[in-house]
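The authors assume throughout that readers already know how a fold can be written as discrete tokens. For illustration, here is how one protein appears when written out as sequence plus structure tokens:
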Amino acid sequence: MTNNDKSISIDIVKYPVITDKSTQLLEENKYTFAVDDQAHKKDIKKTIEHTFDVKIKTINTCNRHPKKKRVGKFIGYKKRYKKAIITLEKNYSIQLFPDN
């Protein structure tokens, strides 16, 4: 294996984030995914392009801090994750909601 041949890990992308704001961004051809918090933009781009067979224009990432969660008298935290907002080229799209 040479330096140019890097394996693509599908485990980088965890799941699509479905919120009110992310569904509004779908109209602008922007998709939101929760990704591994150690992943770089280059790795995310390779994985998304290979998995969904699309062309990516830009990637914006942000680290989401863990929120407090209270269950009765116990206080804990939700998991920390990185969110990636991916803008695709004009002619491409991703089917997040398959038609019935």
User: Anything to note?
Assistant: The beta strands are 13-16, 30-35, 56-64, 68-71, 74-77, 81-88. The chain has one domain: 10-88. The chain has a mean pLDDT of 89.
